[in-house]
Amino acid sequence: MSKYKILNSPVVPNMPWQDGPAEFNGAPVWRYSQNPIIGRNPLPGVARIFNSAVVPYNGAFIGVFRGEQTNGIPYIYLGHSEDAIHWTFDQEKIHFVDEQGNDFMPVYAYDPRLVKVEDTYYIIWCGDFYGAAIGIAKTKDFKTFVRLENPFLPFNRNAVLFPRKINGNFVMFSRPSDSGHTPFGDVFISESPDLTYWGKHRHVMSKGNEWWESLKIGGGAAPIETSEGWLLFYHGVSGTCNGYVYSIGGAILDIDEPSRVKYRCETFLLTPEEWYEERGFVPNVCFPCATIHDSETGRIAIYYGAADSYVGLAFTTLDQIIDYIRDHSVTNVTDTEMGRR
Question: Which residues of the chain register pLDDT less than 50?
Fold first, then answer.
């Protein structure tokens, strides 16, 4: 019988799954043996797909994918799958319109997340708003995509929307930065009653003291609501003499005050070790953007970008990962305080 429960989430009996080893040397997270599930040159005009997000939809699966075009400009493409492993993609990038139905295309768009809140699906990405900033759009049918106004000023990245409102407000992670490659490196949350006006900005987590997240951190997959709190898979970055290394970390946030961190794993859950993670357009990257999780079995599938060239898939279970995060948790004052000063 499960120790913990996934809350307010559907049963997904057809989610992708592969059993893990009997014993673990480290975190209880294991890679799909047929990784990468998306390789290079996946459709005409697109050299690489990575850092992408998927959700269950109408008994199958749908996703938004970072497609690096052959001119080097990233955009978002729609993908469809029966098993969430083998994907087909629309050949044209997603077409965004404004609230009046007029064209409202971003200059570029990358690292999308896809989150369902109530009856609407929201796509959140990083784009150009006179500097790196957050873009957001909504859809109910994956045919019409209505882009909203930019929620925050530049410079900001790694926005992740919570899958339900808290105290009547939308809640979203972000990571403020400067015009360079993100030296600030801390995760914040903000609230909005309408996705237009954002406030109650609060600090969640600082970059860590451990080497694997000492440079910067950022929100990853949409948090999973559980009986223990919000389960968050995020990325942590280390600076080395040969460039950055992106690893996957885990934390559990307070269910009612998600700016408070209850548990934060001091060790990474997954770090680049396989060829498709170590070798690519940007080497040494594991970058989580989505999970598919089944509330009945507690199974969790983690989708992550690998080396800015591929999409990888890894697995864990709710009981195993929560126990591991709790058993290896180290928090400090900036984690556990409300984040309001």
Answer: none
